[in-house]
Description:
With 762 residues, the protein is mainly alpha-helical.
Amino acid sequence: MTSETLMTGAAGLRRHGLPIEVTSFVGRQRELAELAELASTARLVTVTGPGGVGKTRTALRAAAQLAGDFADGVCLVELSGLRDAELLPNTVANCLGLSETGVRNRLDAITEYLRDRELLLILDTCEHLVDACAMLADVLLRATTSVTVLATSRQPLDVPGEHVFAVLPLPVDGAAVELFAQRAATVVPGFVVDDSNRDAVLALCRRLDGVPLALELATVRLRALSLEQLSSRLEDRFRLLTGGRRSALPHHQTLRTATEWSYDLCTPAEQLLWARLSVFAGSFVIAATEDVCAGPGLPRDDVLPTLIGLVDKSVVLRVDEVGVSRYRLLDTIREFGAEKLASSGDGPAMRDRHLDRYLALAERFGDNFAEEQLARYHELRAEHADIRAAIETALGAGREPAAARLVTALYGYWHIAGLPREGKYWLTRVLERFPDPVPERAALLITRCYLVTGAEADGREGIAIAEQLGKPLIAARGYLALHLALAASGRLTDAAQAGVIAEERLEALGDWVGLHCLDAQLSQMHAVAGQPELALARCARGLARAVARDEVWETSYLHYTSGLALFQQGEYERSAAEEYTALAMKHELGDTMGIAHCLEVLAWVAVRQHRHERAAWLLGAADGLWQRTGRRVSGNPFLEEFHQQAVLAASTALGPDSYKDGAAGGARLPLDDIVTLAVSDANELPRPAPSPGTGRRQTDLPGGLTGREYEIALLVADGLSNREIALRLVISKRTVDAHVEHTFAKLGVSSRVQLATWLATR
């Protein structure tokens, strides 16, 4: 592989939409109108207010109203799980879908991408990173013309041009009572506010100062207490905290009081778990809860029922994702739990257990790189915030060897996730703790060489240390990394020599993973050197080596490179078939850069087949992805020549205007649609189906189904199995399973026959 094409990672997180509201939104119509108007004219608006007052909910509701005013949509960046301010640009870039490759500075990549875009960027929960968020907002205001930043924070950012919008508690005699009534009805079916209880509800809302989170925490208690008991117990709590005075409390004290009161009403086991859960920086699964939080006072078998109790009390929120249930704590709840954990003296032990879990997760991925790779990669991706937290714990607790094991075990994850620069950041921080020639330093240097273009010196130093210490596997992997670094810098002769040494040593050690990586690297090197025969031979060797393995990342590159080499030989149908296979794998990984490379080759094939309409939208779709991932075809001059030839041929055949329209249409397509159309061999883009009398695209689908759910439902009705649907749509069977399950739940059906009948009646 050469240049940044070589094993570059995915663009990571795709651009966020706004989360679906799972509970009703109450009140704030005036605030929403004012905030929407302000955000439509001001380029930086910071929504402020105390914890639990509803800053995020209000900002997201206003953003939903404004979304149509921004041609490039809305991007939500959730910052509550981020602790290291230096990683703020990485986090924002990942949410925008920008690759880490090809750009020296992440902030430069963000500003370059946003320079001419009309986009609403939401920075949610900035108070713990206020200086970094202020710097980012200031840079964006100066470097772009049509980007609006909407921030939520407990304090202003204090940036020139900032407009502060304060969110206050709900009016007690209006929206607060309505919110209480709605939430109480979910706890006590049939609950209504009427003449018999209105005064009690008003008094309770008044004592909670109309703070939404405090109200929601209070309503949960109605499962066990009557309204009168609820009011009296709350009143006693406030008297105790205010010395008997009935004056209104500050909002933050009111929220803390409600939080502490909710804590006191938990069982001892629930209190213990609440405190221990505060070590998680992001969302977590049941297994993580059991691994980290079980211990003295809370046996492992008791963790799940205790967690269910906290979910029932609205202390822990359930977050359903495709195929799995995850859980999280609100920031205020987490902060309160962290205080309790610190006062208990269990903090260091829980953080050690947290570190041990994520170290084990990383090493299971790194040591068995090909085993269930896709599932394990997605598992790590969902745990990214806690991986960061675990590294910080190791560095802060004097567990440097664990930190070194963790960041090096993630060598493949950094690449697949499209995070080589973040990987470099952590490797560099850990390297500072190992100045002497020890095995950890060798492994860290070699991993950094593997991740970063031009890090040849790291590789050579790491190899020297490994050989000096008698660490043959580290040294062999060092030559593998050195080959990649040399090939990426265009030194193909030196790279070939390093490849020969790497292959000899990896063969001697029986290192299947290393050899498979080398196959992908060597095949790519030959392909971009104009040696298609050598590239195909190495691809065949690598694909044969991969038989009966569950490795996806390197295998996808072998199929891509096979397609590229076959294109060079004029085998256009076979080339396209290889690219279809690679495209399916890269789509499943979320490898945006890899998808762009596959689309390029498919466009070049289309030109050679005189299918210029197809070539135009494929090139446009690829260009849209290149803007997010770095330089086109990773800046490789050999591949760039093929690109320019294709553009010239398609533009000449169609005419400049028609070509431009076709390319623009491809650039506008959602990624799922791009992949589906590409692998279905579509020649022209489908025309949007207009709604009657509107001329706009029809978005109202039966049963509240999403577009993808409806598409899958139709295929189910046609008699296709989930596996056949997955192959048809180029997605995983696991994803199809989850969509079918969600569709059954939405429509209230329990079988495929019932689903087909339901569709037939509509």
